[in-house]
């Protein structure tokens, strides 16, 4: 049937006017194209399929129903099994996801009173909750990091006055870093906040060096705070500048990575490098001023020093053990050199053997299911498959809602294809180990392999950064480069899918 339709519904060239060999004086050349494409259902019904020995003929209308269909594949959408109308909104370049989400929801609330009775608004897929949860988690981490840094400084310095000086440096440097981010056009996002989390511990290093050296000079030389600060800064100013330059040299080159890698890490690297430079400036300007004003010489043990006497004793024992270890290392340098070389080899081996990836998978609060039925399957069969998928996911306690589409997938429009967006419950209501998006996807793929018999359905996680592919992993296209034909190409596709299913490194 397909061969007959292709042969009898083809555009052909009937000839050429003024072609070679042309008569003398010919001025024009034109190709004559005959109207051979069929234009009506009746003409398609009359397509000849076979001529019988007795002279009878079998036409397409004898074996098939020929009718005029729609210009495009119809798309059916459902939410939790009920008919629904889906509206997708994509962010414009440079748009803020949180602001757009808030504006869209506000507008829909204004329009909701005008909706027909029984129509409700649902949000099966949105990126804003994941962004908000991620930012909240990073902000919480920053607060915890600041608290831990202050606690560690208090335990080691054992002085409220000495602890206060590095603690003041943290908000000052963070404020200056936000100014640098604004100058570069950066926003407060996951990448910049992650850079600040890593920088929290480094921000106070320079200020701690200043405080400890001033206290040492006060104790050893018997100088007052102002004189001790002046002498101390003359000793360590160049070292502080060197520390800042070295740390900046580590992070700044990341801003010059090419391609998408550079776009991802540029904000991270410049944010943390800016924080490093500001911490040096604060250590050279603000911290010495605070030392001269806040620190006081003490000749008796303070209450904190008495409370942390046990800590000092343990730290002293640890220091003496470290000194003995260094002495043993110096006396047996060859042994430790071999150990160091072994560590280098082990690092190289692990670097090669450990799996790599562009971005780590994230639990974004949803999963996506794509299903594909055999070529030629009707939309009704696709809807039947949707019902099977709906029954499975709606039985799962972790699922909050399910939006399904028949007639459309990431590969385009087709009656035999579809998508499902699985909206999971909030992270606080799910166990991070057994009810994470990754665990749910793995269980779903195992279950769908047995439930969807006449097609293929697989769940996957979208990448953490939108527009960088439709799923984690890679894509490939199988092409017939040797004119082997459709059947041979489908056979090769089956072999490829079978090998992929047997591979332990491929999830779907």
UniProtKB/TrEMBL annotation:
Q: Which UniProt keywords apply?
A: Cell inner membrane, Cell membrane, Membrane, Transmembrane, Transmembrane helix, Transport
The yes or no answer to whether the keyword Transferase is present is: no
Source organism: Marinobacter adhaerens
Topology relative to the membrane, per the entry? Multi-pass membrane protein
Name this protein carries in UniProt? Hydrophobe/amphiphile efflux-1 family RND transporter
Q: Name one GO molecular function term.
A: xenobiotic transmembrane transporter activity
Q: Does the keyword Acetylation apply?
A: no
Per the UniProt record, one Pfam family is ACR_tran
Lineage here is:
Bacteria, Pseudomonadati, Pseudomonadota, Gammaproteobacteria, Pseudomonadales
């Amino acid at each position: 049937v397909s061969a007959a339709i292709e042969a009898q519904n083809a555009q052909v060239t009937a000839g050429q006017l003024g072609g070679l060999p042309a008569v003398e004086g010919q001025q024009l050349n034109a190709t004559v194209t005959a109207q051979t494409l069929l234009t009506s259902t009746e003409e398609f019904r009359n397509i000849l399929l076979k001529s019988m020995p007795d002279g009878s003929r079998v036409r397409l209308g004898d074996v098939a129903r020929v009718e005029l269909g729609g210009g495009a594949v119809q798309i059916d959408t459902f939410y939790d099994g009920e008919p629904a109308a889906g509206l997708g909104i994509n962010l414009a370049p440079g748009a803020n996801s949180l602001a757009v989400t808030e504006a869209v929801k506000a507008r829909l609330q204004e329009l909701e009173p005008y909706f027909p009775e029984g129509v409700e608004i649902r949000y099966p897929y949105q990126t804003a909750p994941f962004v908000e949860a991620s930012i909240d988690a990073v902000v919480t981490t920053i607060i915890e990091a600041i608290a831990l840094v202050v606690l560690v400084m208090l335990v080691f310095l054992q002085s409220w006055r000495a602890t206060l000086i590095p603690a003041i440096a943290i908000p000052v440097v963070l404020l200056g870093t936000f100014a640098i981010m604004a100058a570069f056009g950066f926003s407060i996002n996951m990448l910049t906040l992650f850079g600040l989390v890593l920088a929290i511990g480094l921000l106070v290093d320079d200020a701690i060096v200043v405080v400890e050296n001033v206290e040492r000079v006060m104790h050893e030389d018997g100088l007052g705070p102002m004189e001790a600060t002046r002498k101390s800064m003359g000793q360590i100013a160049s070292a502080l500048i060197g520390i800042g330059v070295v740390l900046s040299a580590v992070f700044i080159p990341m801003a010059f990575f090419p391609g998408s890698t550079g776009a991802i890490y540029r904000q991270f690297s410049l944010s943390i490098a800016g924080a490093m430079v500001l911490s040096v400036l604060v250590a050279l300007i603000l911290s010495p001023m605070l030392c001269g004003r806040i620190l006081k010489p003490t000749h008796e043990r303070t209450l904190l020093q008495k409370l942390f006497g046990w800590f000092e004793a343990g730290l002293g024992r640890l220091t003496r053990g470290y000194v003995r270890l260094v002495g043993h290392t110096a006396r047996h340098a060859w042994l430790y050199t071999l150990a160091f070389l072994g560590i280098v080899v082990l690092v190289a081996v692990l670097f090669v053997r450990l799996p790599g990836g562009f971005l780590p998978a994230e639990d974004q609060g949803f999963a996506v299911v794509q299903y594909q039925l055999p070529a030629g399957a009707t939309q009704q069969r696709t809807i039947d498959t949707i019902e099977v998928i709906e029954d499975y996911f709606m039985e799962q306690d972790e699922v909050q809602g399910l939006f399904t589409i028949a007639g459309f997938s990431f590969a385009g429009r087709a009656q035999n294809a579809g998508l499902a967006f699985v909206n999971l419950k909030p992270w606080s209501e799910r166990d991070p180990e057994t009810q994470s998006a990754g665990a749910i996807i793995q269980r779903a793929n195992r279950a769908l392999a047995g439930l969807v018999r006449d097609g293929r359905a697989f769940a996957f996680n979208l990448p953490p950064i939108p527009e960088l592919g439709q799923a984690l992993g890679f894509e490939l296209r199988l092409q017939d480069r040797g004119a082997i034909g459709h059947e041979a190409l489908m056979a090769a596709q089956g072999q490829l899918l079978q090998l992929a299913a047997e591979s332990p490194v491929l999830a779907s």
